[in-house]
Amino acid sequence: MTTTVDAPAGPLTPARISRLRVPELDELKNPGVKGFFTKQLREEGLTSNWFRALSLNEDDLGRLNAYLLPILGADGRGGLSAREREVIATVVSGENRCAYCHTNHANKLGKVAGDWSFGQRVAIDHTQVAELTERERALGDLAVLVNNHPQQIRDADFDRLRALGLDDHQILEVISIAAFIGATNRIGIALAVPPNPEYTGIPEGAHTS
After folding, report:
1. Is residue 34 situated within a structural domain?
2. Neighbours of 67 (CB within 10 A)
3. Of 84, 148, 162, 169, which sits 20 to 30 A from 45 (CA to CA)?
4. Domain-embedded: residue 61
5. For the whole model, what pTM was predicted?
6. What is the CATH number of the domain that holds 179?
7. 140 part of a folded domain
């Protein structure tokens, strides 16, 4: 005889987005932070839970955004491609098992790559993703070292990237992205920030391999 288990009652969407107080948008006073959320609402139709959680100290969030958003390529800078930046962020977030960042960056990588499942698979284990280029695989490998074993980084790791076309400025960007995403992961984990629901499902019409 087969038994069934009833689904849990109530909504599955988390009732809170931080272990600490989260201010309402109309409470915010920092013009840059208010503008950031206004732009998110206009372009994405949402405000991201992680940034909302950090808006409790809004001036700190403003300074953080001034560094974080450019290194993730939000200013359209050259050098590393948007896909390469998201590969690094996705690999590190997967390594740290940060629910928000893992889901967010896997979702963004899938959009950049035009393949939703690609982002999800890179987040789980980039070494098993055959579609990664040799350069992307090297970026992921260095990101893991920066995050997990920085003492084990050797000159040969940088030589490998130079041989694949990266200059020293770009290698420093790889390190910075990996290290800083690791820090954002730890903030998200400490505050128990859940992913936005929009980041957790397969987008309508998305390619899934």
Report:
1. no
2. 11
3. 84
4. no
5. 0.90
6. 1.20.1290.10
7. yes
Residues 6+ apart with CB under 8 A from 72: 85, 86, 89, 177
- Which domain range does residue 172 map to? 79-199
Instruction: Examine the pLDDT at 13 and tell me if it is beyond 90.
Output: no
Q: What is the pLDDT of residues 166-185, one digit of tens each?
A: 999 999 999 999 999 999 99
Q: How far apart are CA 114 and CA 206, in angstroms?
A: 8
Q: Which residues of 172-202 are buried (b: 16+ CB within 10 A; e: fewer)?
A: ebbbebbebbbebbebbeebebbbbeebeee
**137 residue type, one letter:** R
In a domain, 64, yes or no: no
Q: Is the pLDDT of residue 1 over 70?
A: no
Query: Which structure tokens are listed for 94?
Result: 């997967």
Q: Kindly give, in sequence order, each residue whose CB lies less than 8 Å from that of residue 47, ignoring residues fewer than 6 positions away.
A: 25, 37, 40, 41
Indicate the number of domains in the chain: 1
